[in-house]
Amino acid sequence: MAARPTTPASPKNVKLKSPTPGTPLYGCEHIQKLFTHTQETTNTSVTYYKNILRCIFDNNPLQAQTTTGSITTLTPNYLCLQCPTTLTPEDALIHGNNKSHRFYVDSRSGAIFCQMCDDFVWDPTLEDLRVRRIAGGTFNNRKRKHDEMFMDPQADDSKFITNNTNVASCRANGLRGIYNAGATCYQNVVLQTFLHNPLIRNFYLSDGHQSGSCDTQYCLSCAMDDMFQDFYATEITNGYTAANILSGFWISENKAFDNLVTTKEQDAHEFFQFLAEELHERNGDGRKPEIGCEHSCNCIIHQTFYGKHQSTTTCQNCHGQTNQVQSFLDLSLSLENLTQKKGKKHAKGPTSLTLQDCLEEEYLKPDKCEYRCNKCDSTQQARRQTSIKLLPNVLSIQLKRFEYKQGRNERAVKIETPVNFPLSLNMLPYHSQARGADIKDQYEKARSCTYDLLSVVEHKGEIDTGHYVTYSRVGDQWFSFNDHRVELATKSDVLNAKAYLLFYIVRSLA
C-alpha cells in the first residue's frame, strides 16, 4: 500500500512576548512598526536575530565578541536585523540610507540598536530570545530536565553557574588598539608587545612601580602603569591614546635616541631599546647599561629581557684562550651576508632563510680576527667563537632588515628576504654549556632552553613610507594589532609575516 502523501508544514508564526503590566510591548515605536507591518517581516527579523545570536554566542569566549560572519574585529560591528549583512559602525549608516534598514545588532553583546532612535533599545521579545540563548544555549522555553531541576547544587556547581549566569560584557581583557598620533606606529607595536608580555604585565598590575610615590616628572614607568591599568582594569575595547607615554618619550633626556623624536617614520627596534633603558632607569639601579660590559640588575627589564654573551678567543699560535662576558638586551641577526651566500648557492630559485640559519651564522660559526695574545706577547691570528652563556626569560630578536650602503650616496636599503621562524624555538645549540655535554645533560638543559613565540613585529612597505604591525598571542589565540584596529589572526598569518622583531618566552615559565 502506497505511503500517504504529506502536506508540507506551514511556517510557524512568531508570537510576540505577552505584555507585562508596566512593561512596554515593544522596544520603541520604530520596532513596533517593523513587527506590526506584516507577519512575514516579523518572522524574517526574528529569524535573522536568532542566527545572529548563534553566531555571537556559539563561539568560545574570545571569539564570541570578535567574530561575526566574515569580519573578525575587536571593536563592535553591527549586524543588520533585516538582511544578512555585517557592517562597521560607519558603513551601517550608509547601509541604512541605501536599504532603509534601520535596526542593527551589536556584535559583542547582541543588543539592538535603532538607527532612528540613535540608541540601543530594549525590546521584550528580542531580549527574551537573547537571555534564553545566553543562559541555556537554546531558544526553546521548555522546562529543565527533572535531574537538572532537582540536582544538588553542591554536586556540580560549575554546571549550575554556567546555566544561570549571563555572559560578561567584555571577555577579551587587555585587547585594545592604540591610536596613531602621527607616524607613531613604530611605538604602538612595541607597546603592544609589552602589554602582552606576562612578566611586564604582572609587574605593573601588582603595583611593581609605585606611581603614587613617584616624584619623577613625565615618568615613562608611571605612564606605562597607567596604560596597563586602562587595558586590564576597564572593560573598554576602543582605541587607546598613549599621550602620557608620548610626552615622557619626547621630554626624555636620553640623547642617544634624539633622532626618534620626530613626526617621521622611525625604527621600532630603536624605540624598543629606548623604552627598555628608560624603564630600567626608573625601576632599577639607575645605572645606564654600558656597551660591552656585563651589567647585572634586579629590575623587571633585566629579569625579563637581559641575557649574557660569551666570546671565546683562541690564539692560533699558542692555542691560549680568553673569555669575555657581556650583557645583551636582544640578539641582532644579520641577513645581508647570509642572503648573498644563499643566493649564490641557489641561483635558480628565490632566496629564503630560516631563523636557525641566522642563529647558526652568529653563534656556531667562528670568525677570524687579530688578537693581542698575553702569552705570546704579540699580535696573532685568532679565532673568535660567540655563544650564549645566559638566556633571558623573554628572548627578543632583531632581524636586521635595514642596512646602510657605503659609497658616494650613503643610503639605507631594506632587505626583503623571507625568514621562516618557528612557533617553538630550541636555543640549546647556541648555549655555551651545550658544547661537550653528554646526551642526558643536553636533554635536561633543552627543557630550560625551549621558547614559544609570543609576539612578531612586521614592517611593511618602503623604509621612509612603510608601516608597522604586530601579532601577539593571547592564550592560544593570535591577534593582529594595526594601530587602533585589532583583528583575530591565524597561525598562518603570523608565520607568513616578514618579521623584523621576534619575541619568544621561555616555556618553563608556563
Topology summary:
Layout: H1 29-37, H2 39-57, H3 61-64, E1 67-68, E2 71-72, E3 78-80, E4 86-87, H4 89-99, E5 103-106, E6 112-114, E7 119-121, H5 124-136, H6 146-149, H7 157-163, H8 185-195, H9 198-205, H10 220-233, H11 243-251, H12 268-283, H13 300-305, E8 307-315, E9 321-328, E10 331-334, H14 336-345, E11 353-354, H15 355-363, E12 367-373, E13 378-390, E14 394-400, E15 402-405, E16 411-414, E17 419-420, E18 424-426, H16 439-448, E19 450-460, E20 467-474, E21 477-482, E22 485-489, H17 491-495, E23 499-506
Parallel strand pairs: 10-14, 11-17
Antiparallel strand pairs: 1-2, 3-4, 3-5, 5-6, 6-7, 8-9, 8-13, 12-13, 14-23, 15-16, 18-19, 19-20, 19-23, 20-21, 21-22
Describe this structure in words.
The protein starts with about 30 loop residues before the first helix and ends with a strand. Among the domains are: about 30-140 and about 160-165, Herpes Virus-1 (2-Layer Sandwich), CATH 3.30.40.10; about 185-280, no CATH class. The chain is elongated. Strands 10, 14, 18, 19, 20, 21, 22 and 23 form an eight-stranded mixed sheet that branches. It has a five-stranded antiparallel sheet with strand order 4-3-5-6-7. A four-stranded antiparallel sheet has the order 9-8-13-12, with no helix packed on it. The longest helix is centred in the first third of the chain and has 19 residues, at about 40-55. The protein has about 500 residues and is of the alpha+beta class. Helix 1 (about 30-35) packs across helix 2. The protein contains 17 helices and 23 strands. Strand 20 and strand 21 (about 475-480) form a beta hairpin. This is USP domain-containing protein. Pfam families: UCH, zf-UBP. Keywords: Metal-binding, Zinc, Zinc-finger. One of its GO terms (cellular component) is cytosol. GO terms for molecular function: cysteine-type deubiquitinase activity; zinc ion binding.
